[in-house]
Amino acid sequence: MKEYEFHLSTPVKFARAGGEAGETTLIVFKEPMYRHAGATAALKGHYTQAMFQASERASRQGIEVKNEQETEPTAEDRAAFINLMIRMDGTLSEAIIGAFIRLVKMPGIAAVDGDIQLSEVHLASIPYEDIERMTVSFLANFIERSSSTVPTA
Q1: Does 106 have pLDDT greater than 60?
Q2: What is the value of pTM for the model shown?
């Protein structure tokens, strides 16, 4: 299972089962699995709609979008592109972030300090800019990468 670490700009408080309390900036994201299919499909659908609309806008304006790199774009390259695309439409941005929040609250997707399930309480203390950065990072690392993969027989 693939995973990656994300660091918040502001620490979030947590409490372990034994009562130990602490603060961390670390959120570990894990690749969605079958049990996350519905929420993942919703996020992917909103993301695809945003990309399609951005492509249509570019086409109407006579802008040709092409990848001139000879190598696969990095997660950072994908994140920068995704960030720009979803900011072009506030309604879609809201839908994408809402779908992302629903997905990361599911068990097995996001863990505070690497092992504590991300909860509504944690999310409520995370600044919006970090929520937006987490959304873009998740899209770049898991959703966009899988959307551009063509299955083979």
Answers
A1: yes
A2: 0.80
